[in-house]
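hey m, so remember when u said the tokens were messed up on ur end? i reran from scratch. heres the input so u can diff it against urs
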Amino acid sequence: MPVSRSCAWTGFRSMLEPIEKILWTSEINTANVHEIVLIGSSTHIPHIVKLMPDFCNGKKPNKSINPDEAIAYGAAVLAAILSGDTSEYCLQCCHSSRYPFW
């Protein structure tokens, strides 16, 4: 069954709801968002890439980060944190200037 453009666009728009909820919970306005980084499959969906500047006051997603590498890196750092790793290497990774986690 074919999907109409308006139906697909509504579906893509609904993908922004979790972002809106995170910003609201964090008490952050989209004007205070300094950088947008899309990771994973979202980077390959033109409509998602097109929605982000509209959502974040014209700011375009940063494309200098490899989205697949960012996911792998984040998963590795999260695994280290959850396992209780407090080694100097783990702490350096978490404070990396390339992918700062906090």
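this time it looks ok to me. DSSP finds five helices and no strands in the chain. if urs says something different then somethings off w ur setup not the seq
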